[in-house]
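Page 37, top half.
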Amino acid sequence: MSKLLDYLNALDTNAVLIQAHKSDPLKAATEFGLSEKEQTALFGEGRQGVAAFLDIPFRDFDAIDTIETPFSLDSETACLKHKDEEALAV
Protein backbone atom coordinates (compact mmCIF):
# COMPACT_ATOMS: atom_id res chain seq x y z
CA MET A 1 0.00 0.00 0.00
CA SER A 2 1.04 3.57 -0.61
CA LYS A 3 2.78 5.49 2.15
CA LEU A 4 0.55 8.41 1.22
CA LEU A 5 -2.36 7.07 3.24
CA ASP A 6 -0.02 6.45 6.19
CA TYR A 7 1.20 10.05 5.86
CA LEU A 8 -2.33 11.44 5.84
CA ASN A 9 -3.28 9.34 8.86
CA ALA A 10 -0.14 10.46 10.69
CA LEU A 11 -1.05 14.09 9.99
CA ASP A 12 -4.18 13.49 12.06
CA THR A 13 -2.32 12.19 15.10
CA ASN A 14 1.36 13.12 15.12
CA ALA A 15 1.96 16.66 16.43
CA VAL A 16 5.61 16.68 15.33
CA LEU A 17 4.67 15.69 11.77
CA ILE A 18 1.86 18.24 11.71
CA GLN A 19 4.29 21.03 12.63
CA ALA A 20 6.88 19.79 10.13
CA HIS A 21 4.21 19.68 7.41
CA LYS A 22 3.08 23.22 8.23
CA SER A 23 6.67 24.49 8.18
CA ASP A 24 7.88 22.69 5.03
CA PRO A 25 5.41 20.23 3.51
CA LEU A 26 7.78 18.95 0.83
CA LYS A 27 10.57 18.26 3.29
CA ALA A 28 8.16 16.55 5.70
CA ALA A 29 6.74 14.36 2.93
CA THR A 30 10.21 13.46 1.64
CA GLU A 31 11.50 12.61 5.11
CA PHE A 32 8.40 10.48 5.70
CA GLY A 33 9.38 8.51 2.61
CA LEU A 34 6.76 9.56 0.08
CA SER A 35 7.72 8.89 -3.52
CA GLU A 36 7.66 11.64 -6.15
CA LYS A 37 4.38 10.24 -7.50
CA GLU A 38 2.86 10.33 -4.02
CA GLN A 39 4.08 13.89 -3.51
CA THR A 40 2.65 14.93 -6.87
CA ALA A 41 -0.71 13.46 -5.91
CA LEU A 42 -0.58 15.14 -2.51
CA PHE A 43 0.56 18.61 -3.55
CA GLY A 44 -0.45 18.90 -7.16
CA GLU A 45 -3.72 17.11 -7.68
CA GLY A 46 -5.91 18.22 -4.78
CA ARG A 47 -8.24 16.12 -2.69
CA GLN A 48 -9.86 14.37 -5.64
CA GLY A 49 -6.44 13.52 -7.07
CA VAL A 50 -5.36 12.00 -3.76
CA ALA A 51 -8.55 9.95 -3.61
CA ALA A 52 -7.96 8.73 -7.18
CA PHE A 53 -4.30 7.94 -6.46
CA LEU A 54 -5.34 5.86 -3.44
CA ASP A 55 -8.21 4.28 -5.40
CA ILE A 56 -10.70 5.41 -2.81
CA PRO A 57 -14.09 6.83 -3.87
CA PHE A 58 -13.97 10.58 -3.27
CA ARG A 59 -17.31 10.49 -1.44
CA ASP A 60 -15.62 8.25 1.16
CA PHE A 61 -12.53 10.42 1.33
CA ASP A 62 -13.95 13.85 2.04
CA ALA A 63 -12.16 14.46 5.34
CA ILE A 64 -8.79 15.45 3.86
CA ASP A 65 -8.14 18.89 5.26
CA THR A 66 -4.45 18.48 6.06
CA ILE A 67 -3.06 18.57 2.53
CA GLU A 68 -3.37 22.28 1.99
CA THR A 69 0.04 23.79 1.47
CA PRO A 70 1.21 27.28 2.43
CA PHE A 71 2.50 28.01 -1.08
CA SER A 72 1.04 28.05 -4.53
CA LEU A 73 3.75 26.33 -6.53
CA ASP A 74 2.75 23.63 -8.93
CA SER A 75 3.95 20.21 -7.79
CA GLU A 76 6.73 19.85 -10.38
CA THR A 77 8.20 23.25 -9.56
CA ALA A 78 7.88 22.57 -5.84
CA CYS A 79 9.62 19.19 -6.10
CA LEU A 80 12.41 20.68 -8.21
CA LYS A 81 12.83 23.57 -5.76
CA HIS A 82 13.08 21.13 -2.87
CA LYS A 83 15.70 19.04 -4.70
CA ASP A 84 17.71 22.19 -5.48
CA GLU A 85 17.64 23.19 -1.81
CA GLU A 86 18.84 19.72 -0.79
CA ALA A 87 21.68 19.88 -3.31
CA LEU A 88 22.78 23.28 -1.99
CA ALA A 89 22.74 22.00 1.59
CA VAL A 90 25.32 19.30 0.79
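Page 37, bottom half:
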Amino acid sequence: MVQDAYFHGFVLLSGHKAKRPALGCSRERGSETSGGWPAERASHREHGPAPGERQAVPGPLPLETRVRVVSALVEGNSIRATARMVGVDKETVMALALRVGEGCGRLHGRLMRDIVAHVIQIDEMWSFVQKKQARVKPDEPEERGDAYLYVAIDANTKLSISFHVGKRDDVNTHLFIEDLRARLSVVPHITSDGWQSYITAVGQNFRGSVDYGQCVKHYSRKPRRDDDHRYEPPRDPFITKTPICGAPRDELLSTSYVERFNLTTRHTVGRTRRLCLAFSKTLRGHRAAVALGICAYNFVRMHGTLGTTPAVAARVAQGPWTLAELVTAALAEGETAPPAPQPLKLQVRPGAEEKPARELPGGRGFLRLV
Protein backbone atom coordinates (compact mmCIF):
# COMPACT_ATOMS: atom_id res chain seq x y z
CA MET A 1 0.00 0.00 0.00
CA VAL A 2 1.34 3.40 -0.95
CA GLN A 3 0.71 6.24 1.50
CA ASP A 4 1.31 9.91 0.74
CA ALA A 5 1.98 9.00 -2.88
CA TYR A 6 3.23 12.47 -3.74
CA PHE A 7 6.25 11.94 -1.49
CA HIS A 8 7.17 8.40 -2.59
CA GLY A 9 9.21 7.23 -5.53
CA PHE A 10 8.00 5.43 -8.65
CA VAL A 11 6.45 2.13 -7.53
CA LEU A 12 5.39 -0.53 -9.99
CA LEU A 13 1.86 -1.76 -9.35
CA SER A 14 -0.46 -4.07 -11.20
CA GLY A 15 -4.19 -4.24 -11.48
CA HIS A 16 -4.82 -0.60 -10.67
CA LYS A 17 -6.57 1.86 -12.88
CA ALA A 18 -4.31 4.64 -14.10
CA LYS A 19 -4.63 7.99 -12.42
CA ARG A 20 -3.76 11.47 -13.50
CA PRO A 21 -0.01 12.08 -13.26
CA ALA A 22 -0.60 14.71 -10.61
CA LEU A 23 0.24 13.82 -7.07
CA GLY A 24 3.96 13.84 -7.37
CA CYS A 25 5.24 15.12 -10.65
CA SER A 26 4.67 17.75 -13.27
CA ARG A 27 1.97 16.93 -15.77
CA GLU A 28 3.32 15.33 -18.90
CA ARG A 29 2.50 17.16 -22.09
CA GLY A 30 1.44 15.15 -25.10
CA SER A 31 0.12 16.44 -28.37
CA GLU A 32 -1.80 13.39 -29.51
CA THR A 33 -4.42 13.17 -26.75
CA SER A 34 -6.55 15.62 -24.85
CA GLY A 35 -5.53 16.64 -21.36
CA GLY A 36 -1.82 16.39 -22.03
CA TRP A 37 -1.56 12.58 -21.80
CA PRO A 38 0.87 10.74 -24.12
CA ALA A 39 -0.70 8.49 -26.73
CA GLU A 40 0.60 5.26 -25.23
CA ARG A 41 -1.19 6.05 -21.95
CA ALA A 42 -4.45 7.27 -23.43
CA SER A 43 -6.02 3.83 -23.38
CA HIS A 44 -5.20 3.51 -19.69
CA ARG A 45 -7.44 6.46 -18.89
CA GLU A 46 -10.46 4.79 -20.47
CA HIS A 47 -9.88 1.05 -20.11
CA GLY A 48 -7.17 0.60 -17.42
CA PRO A 49 -4.01 -1.48 -17.86
CA ALA A 50 -3.99 -4.74 -19.75
CA PRO A 51 -4.09 -7.94 -17.66
CA GLY A 52 -0.71 -8.53 -16.03
CA GLU A 53 0.64 -5.19 -17.18
CA ARG A 54 2.49 -3.05 -14.64
CA GLN A 55 2.20 0.70 -14.40
CA ALA A 56 4.22 3.46 -12.69
CA VAL A 57 2.82 5.61 -9.89
CA PRO A 58 4.09 9.23 -10.02
CA GLY A 59 7.14 9.81 -7.84
CA PRO A 60 8.00 12.38 -5.19
CA LEU A 61 8.31 16.09 -5.62
CA PRO A 62 11.96 17.13 -5.31
CA LEU A 63 12.74 19.49 -2.46
CA GLU A 64 13.40 22.25 -4.97
CA THR A 65 9.89 21.89 -6.39
CA ARG A 66 8.32 21.80 -2.93
CA VAL A 67 10.15 25.01 -2.06
CA ARG A 68 8.92 26.65 -5.28
CA VAL A 69 5.35 25.68 -4.40
CA VAL A 70 5.61 27.00 -0.85
CA SER A 71 7.40 30.14 -2.06
CA ALA A 72 4.49 30.94 -4.34
CA LEU A 73 1.97 30.31 -1.56
CA VAL A 74 3.69 32.55 1.01
CA GLU A 75 3.66 35.38 -1.52
CA GLY A 76 -0.13 35.30 -1.51
CA ASN A 77 -0.81 33.27 -4.64
CA SER A 78 -3.84 31.02 -4.88
CA ILE A 79 -3.72 27.25 -5.25
CA ARG A 80 -4.50 27.31 -8.98
CA ALA A 81 -2.07 30.15 -9.68
CA THR A 82 0.68 28.26 -7.84
CA ALA A 83 -0.07 25.11 -9.81
CA ARG A 84 0.23 27.01 -13.09
CA MET A 85 3.41 28.81 -12.06
CA VAL A 86 5.27 25.75 -10.81
CA GLY A 87 3.84 23.25 -13.30
CA VAL A 88 2.33 20.73 -10.88
CA ASP A 89 -1.25 19.62 -10.43
CA LYS A 90 -3.67 21.55 -8.22
CA GLU A 91 -4.24 18.53 -6.00
CA THR A 92 -0.50 18.24 -5.42
CA VAL A 93 -0.31 21.88 -4.33
CA MET A 94 -3.26 21.43 -1.97
CA ALA A 95 -1.82 18.27 -0.40
CA LEU A 96 1.62 19.79 0.05
CA ALA A 97 0.22 23.06 1.43
CA LEU A 98 -1.88 21.16 3.97
CA ARG A 99 1.00 18.98 5.12
CA VAL A 100 3.53 21.82 5.35
CA GLY A 101 1.01 24.17 6.97
CA GLU A 102 0.04 21.72 9.69
CA GLY A 103 3.74 21.00 10.27
CA CYS A 104 4.32 24.75 10.65
CA GLY A 105 1.59 24.85 13.28
CA ARG A 106 3.33 22.11 15.26
CA LEU A 107 6.70 23.82 14.74
CA HIS A 108 5.35 27.12 16.03
CA GLY A 109 3.84 25.37 19.04
CA ARG A 110 7.17 23.80 20.00
CA LEU A 111 9.44 26.82 19.47
CA MET A 112 7.30 29.64 20.85
CA ARG A 113 7.83 28.97 24.54
CA ASP A 114 9.26 31.00 27.43
CA ILE A 115 9.06 34.15 25.31
CA VAL A 116 10.32 37.38 26.88
CA ALA A 117 7.88 39.94 25.50
CA HIS A 118 7.37 43.10 27.52
CA VAL A 119 4.93 44.93 25.22
CA ILE A 120 2.29 42.91 23.34
CA GLN A 121 -0.45 43.96 20.96
CA ILE A 122 -3.36 41.61 20.18
CA ASP A 123 -6.05 41.82 17.56
CA GLU A 124 -8.42 39.69 15.50
CA MET A 125 -8.64 39.78 11.70
CA TRP A 126 -11.72 38.72 9.78
CA SER A 127 -11.78 36.09 7.06
CA PHE A 128 -14.20 33.33 6.13
CA VAL A 129 -14.44 29.66 5.18
CA GLN A 130 -16.54 28.50 2.20
CA LYS A 131 -19.02 31.40 2.38
CA LYS A 132 -19.73 34.53 4.38
CA GLN A 133 -21.59 34.18 7.65
CA ALA A 134 -24.79 35.79 6.40
CA ARG A 135 -25.16 33.06 3.75
CA VAL A 136 -24.58 30.08 6.04
CA LYS A 137 -27.72 27.98 6.49
CA PRO A 138 -28.65 26.42 9.85
CA ASP A 139 -28.06 22.85 8.62
CA GLU A 140 -24.56 23.56 7.26
CA PRO A 141 -21.31 22.66 9.10
CA GLU A 142 -20.40 25.01 11.93
CA GLU A 143 -16.92 25.64 10.50
CA ARG A 144 -18.37 27.59 7.57
CA GLY A 145 -18.69 31.34 7.74
CA ASP A 146 -16.58 33.71 9.79
CA ALA A 147 -13.04 32.58 10.65
CA TYR A 148 -11.17 35.21 12.65
CA LEU A 149 -7.41 35.17 13.05
CA TYR A 150 -6.49 36.07 16.62
CA VAL A 151 -2.84 37.09 16.84
CA ALA A 152 -0.44 38.48 19.45
CA ILE A 153 2.58 40.54 18.33
CA ASP A 154 5.62 41.57 20.35
CA ALA A 155 5.81 45.31 19.74
CA ASN A 156 9.61 45.34 20.09
CA THR A 157 10.70 42.31 18.05
CA LYS A 158 7.54 42.09 15.86
CA LEU A 159 7.38 38.37 16.68
CA SER A 160 4.04 36.63 16.24
CA ILE A 161 3.93 34.87 19.61
CA SER A 162 0.52 33.21 19.49
CA PHE A 163 -2.31 32.85 16.99
CA HIS A 164 -5.66 31.12 16.82
CA VAL A 165 -8.29 30.72 14.09
CA GLY A 166 -11.96 30.48 15.00
CA LYS A 167 -15.21 32.32 15.48
CA ARG A 168 -15.23 35.69 17.20
CA ASP A 169 -16.80 34.56 20.47
CA ASP A 170 -15.98 33.98 24.13
CA VAL A 171 -14.78 30.40 23.65
CA ASN A 172 -12.21 31.14 20.96
CA THR A 173 -11.08 34.32 22.71
CA HIS A 174 -10.36 32.35 25.88
CA LEU A 175 -8.49 29.65 23.91
CA PHE A 176 -6.32 32.34 22.31
CA ILE A 177 -5.50 34.18 25.56
CA GLU A 178 -4.87 30.88 27.34
CA ASP A 179 -2.35 29.90 24.66
CA LEU A 180 -0.68 33.34 24.82
CA ARG A 181 -0.35 33.15 28.60
CA ALA A 182 1.31 29.72 28.41
CA ARG A 183 4.01 30.99 26.03
CA LEU A 184 5.20 33.96 28.11
CA SER A 185 7.81 34.13 30.86
CA VAL A 186 7.53 37.78 32.00
CA VAL A 187 4.71 40.07 33.07
CA PRO A 188 3.55 41.75 29.82
CA HIS A 189 1.99 45.04 28.88
CA ILE A 190 -0.96 44.10 26.63
CA THR A 191 -3.11 46.28 24.38
CA SER A 192 -6.19 45.05 22.53
CA ASP A 193 -9.06 46.58 20.65
CA GLY A 194 -12.48 46.99 22.24
CA TRP A 195 -13.62 43.36 21.95
CA GLN A 196 -15.22 42.81 25.36
CA SER A 197 -14.38 39.09 25.66
CA TYR A 198 -10.72 40.05 26.10
CA ILE A 199 -11.41 41.60 29.51
CA THR A 200 -12.65 38.37 31.08
CA ALA A 201 -10.13 36.17 29.24
CA VAL A 202 -7.12 38.28 30.25
CA GLY A 203 -8.31 38.54 33.85
CA GLN A 204 -8.86 34.80 34.25
CA ASN A 205 -5.61 33.70 32.60
CA PHE A 206 -3.15 36.34 33.87
CA ARG A 207 -4.72 36.82 37.32
CA GLY A 208 -3.24 40.27 37.86
CA SER A 209 0.21 39.57 36.40
CA VAL A 210 -0.40 41.92 33.50
CA ASP A 211 -0.76 45.58 32.57
CA TYR A 212 -3.74 45.58 30.24
CA GLY A 213 -5.60 48.34 28.45
CA GLN A 214 -7.77 48.79 25.37
CA CYS A 215 -7.21 51.10 22.44
CA VAL A 216 -10.46 51.72 20.57
CA LYS A 217 -10.64 53.49 17.22
CA HIS A 218 -13.94 55.18 16.44
CA TYR A 219 -14.78 55.09 12.76
CA SER A 220 -17.44 57.63 11.85
CA ARG A 221 -20.48 56.51 9.88
CA LYS A 222 -21.29 60.03 8.76
CA PRO A 223 -21.03 60.73 5.02
CA ARG A 224 -17.92 62.53 3.84
CA ARG A 225 -17.25 64.56 0.74
CA ASP A 226 -13.89 63.09 -0.27
CA ASP A 227 -13.27 59.71 -1.90
CA ASP A 228 -11.09 58.31 0.90
CA HIS A 229 -13.80 58.08 3.55
CA ARG A 230 -13.50 54.27 3.76
CA TYR A 231 -9.78 54.38 4.46
CA GLU A 232 -9.12 57.66 6.27
CA PRO A 233 -11.66 58.21 9.06
CA PRO A 234 -12.08 61.61 10.72
CA ARG A 235 -9.52 62.26 13.40
CA ASP A 236 -11.67 64.15 15.89
CA PRO A 237 -12.00 61.84 18.93
CA PHE A 238 -10.68 58.96 16.86
CA ILE A 239 -8.74 56.97 19.51
CA THR A 240 -9.89 56.20 23.05
CA LYS A 241 -7.45 54.52 25.48
CA THR A 242 -8.89 52.78 28.54
CA PRO A 243 -6.87 51.11 31.34
CA ILE A 244 -8.42 47.78 32.34
CA CYS A 245 -6.12 46.19 34.93
CA GLY A 246 -2.62 46.67 36.30
CA ALA A 247 -0.79 49.88 35.44
CA PRO A 248 -0.79 50.24 31.63
CA ARG A 249 1.14 53.20 30.27
CA ASP A 250 -0.73 55.54 27.96
CA GLU A 251 2.15 55.81 25.47
CA LEU A 252 2.23 52.00 25.09
CA LEU A 253 -1.51 51.58 24.50
CA SER A 254 -1.52 51.06 20.76
CA THR A 255 -2.49 48.44 18.19
CA SER A 256 -0.58 49.92 15.25
CA TYR A 257 1.97 47.12 14.94
CA VAL A 258 -0.54 44.29 15.03
CA GLU A 259 -2.75 46.09 12.51
CA ARG A 260 0.27 46.41 10.24
CA PHE A 261 0.82 42.69 10.69
CA ASN A 262 -2.78 42.11 9.58
CA LEU A 263 -2.07 44.05 6.41
CA THR A 264 1.04 41.95 5.76
CA THR A 265 -0.98 38.77 6.32
CA ARG A 266 -3.61 39.77 3.79
CA HIS A 267 -0.82 40.18 1.23
CA THR A 268 1.07 36.97 2.05
CA VAL A 269 -1.78 34.57 2.88
CA GLY A 270 -4.03 34.60 -0.15
CA ARG A 271 -6.92 32.94 1.70
CA THR A 272 -7.37 36.01 3.91
CA ARG A 273 -7.60 38.47 1.03
CA ARG A 274 -10.87 40.26 0.47
CA LEU A 275 -12.93 40.16 -2.74
CA CYS A 276 -11.13 37.28 -4.45
CA LEU A 277 -11.62 33.58 -5.19
CA ALA A 278 -8.72 32.30 -3.06
CA PHE A 279 -10.82 31.84 0.09
CA SER A 280 -10.60 28.57 2.02
CA LYS A 281 -13.13 25.79 1.57
CA THR A 282 -12.39 24.01 4.88
CA LEU A 283 -11.35 25.24 8.31
CA ARG A 284 -8.51 22.72 8.40
CA GLY A 285 -7.03 24.10 5.20
CA HIS A 286 -7.51 27.66 6.40
CA ARG A 287 -5.66 27.02 9.64
CA ALA A 288 -2.82 25.31 7.78
CA ALA A 289 -2.48 28.26 5.39
CA VAL A 290 -2.37 30.73 8.27
CA ALA A 291 0.23 28.66 10.15
CA LEU A 292 2.42 28.52 7.04
CA GLY A 293 2.18 32.28 6.54
CA ILE A 294 2.98 33.08 10.17
CA CYS A 295 5.97 30.71 10.33
CA ALA A 296 7.36 32.19 7.12
CA TYR A 297 6.88 35.66 8.62
CA ASN A 298 8.62 34.72 11.89
CA PHE A 299 11.55 32.69 10.58
CA VAL A 300 12.12 33.45 6.88
CA ARG A 301 10.97 36.92 5.90
CA MET A 302 13.39 39.75 6.69
CA HIS A 303 11.68 42.57 8.57
CA GLY A 304 12.35 45.94 6.99
CA THR A 305 12.73 47.82 10.29
CA LEU A 306 14.63 45.16 12.22
CA GLY A 307 17.01 44.15 9.44
CA THR A 308 16.51 40.50 10.41
CA THR A 309 13.65 38.10 11.07
CA PRO A 310 11.40 38.52 14.12
CA ALA A 311 12.50 35.09 15.40
CA VAL A 312 16.13 36.20 15.43
CA ALA A 313 15.26 39.51 17.10
CA ALA A 314 13.39 37.60 19.82
CA ARG A 315 16.25 35.07 20.15
CA VAL A 316 14.02 32.19 19.16
CA ALA A 317 16.32 31.38 16.21
CA GLN A 318 20.06 31.90 15.84
CA GLY A 319 19.80 33.16 12.27
CA PRO A 320 17.30 33.67 9.44
CA TRP A 321 15.95 30.46 7.93
CA THR A 322 15.73 29.66 4.26
CA LEU A 323 12.42 28.53 2.89
CA ALA A 324 13.94 25.11 2.24
CA GLU A 325 14.86 24.83 5.93
CA LEU A 326 11.31 25.77 6.94
CA VAL A 327 9.75 23.22 4.58
CA THR A 328 12.10 20.48 5.74
CA ALA A 329 11.53 21.26 9.41
CA ALA A 330 7.75 21.45 8.99
CA LEU A 331 7.52 18.11 7.20
CA ALA A 332 9.64 16.45 9.90
CA GLU A 333 7.89 18.04 12.90
CA GLY A 334 5.95 15.66 15.13
CA GLU A 335 3.25 16.22 17.70
CA THR A 336 4.25 17.89 20.96
CA ALA A 337 2.26 18.67 24.09
CA PRO A 338 1.06 22.27 24.37
CA PRO A 339 3.03 24.46 26.78
CA ALA A 340 1.94 24.72 30.39
CA PRO A 341 1.75 28.19 31.96
CA GLN A 342 4.69 29.03 34.21
CA PRO A 343 4.90 31.74 36.92
CA LEU A 344 5.59 35.08 35.27
CA LYS A 345 8.63 37.11 36.30
CA LEU A 346 8.44 40.85 36.86
CA GLN A 347 11.18 42.47 34.78
CA VAL A 348 11.90 46.09 34.07
CA ARG A 349 10.84 46.94 30.55
CA PRO A 350 13.43 48.53 28.24
CA GLY A 351 13.50 52.26 28.84
CA ALA A 352 11.48 52.04 32.08
CA GLU A 353 12.62 52.91 35.60
CA GLU A 354 12.86 50.15 38.18
CA LYS A 355 10.47 50.64 41.10
CA PRO A 356 9.76 48.69 44.28
CA ALA A 357 7.51 45.65 43.84
CA ARG A 358 6.38 42.69 45.92
CA GLU A 359 4.77 39.48 44.72
CA LEU A 360 1.34 38.75 46.14
CA PRO A 361 0.58 35.29 47.55
CA GLY A 362 -1.37 32.72 45.57
CA GLY A 363 -0.10 33.90 42.19
CA ARG A 364 -2.34 36.98 42.30
CA GLY A 365 0.23 39.26 40.69
CA PHE A 366 2.49 41.95 42.12
CA LEU A 367 2.10 44.93 44.42
CA ARG A 368 4.02 47.72 42.68
CA LEU A 369 4.79 51.36 43.17
CA VAL A 370 3.67 53.20 40.05
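Margin note: Residues 118 and 350 are 8 Å apart (CA to CA).
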